[in-house]
Amino acid sequence: MKEKTAGAIYDVLVRFAGANEADWETFAWLHVTARCDEYRFMGALGFGGKFWCHDWRVSAYPEDITLERQQVIDETNAALAELRATIEPEVSHG
Questions:
Q1: Residue 19 lies in a domain
Q2: Can you state the angle between helices 67-86 and 3-17, rounded to 10 degrees?
Q3: What's the pLDDT score for residue 59?
Q4: Residues 87-94: contacts with CB within 8 Å, 24+ apart?
Q5: Which H or E run contains 24?
Q6: Range of the structural domain that residue 52 is part of
Q7: Which tens digit of pLDDT belongs to each residue from 15-52?
Q8: CB of 13 within 8 A of CB of 58?
Q9: What total of structural domains would you count in the chain?
Q10: pTM value?
């Protein structure tokens, strides 16, 4: 994935899911250089809060889902889907 795309994704994670802005460099390295499939960002979704690179979505541990967290997941995933529709995906993990 290109760094610009990773940045746009991470902006969504910060804005909608409470990811820590200070962790941007780790996210960028993992998704631009190492080509990681998942990233645990936690934020508003607790310890199980993850971003999944293959399908550009977030999730949390099922046992940690509350109505508030489900709303965060739904809003974040909608924003990620909208972003993905505007960016030509460069994700290719083979």
A1: yes
A2: 150
A3: 97
A4: 87/5, 87/8, 89/5, 90/1, 90/2, 90/5, 91/1, 91/5, 91/53, 91/54, 91/56, 93/35, 93/37, 93/53, 93/54
A5: helix 24-28
A6: 3-86
A7: 999 999 999 989 888 888 887 889 999 999 999 999 99
A8: yes
A9: 1
A10: 0.87
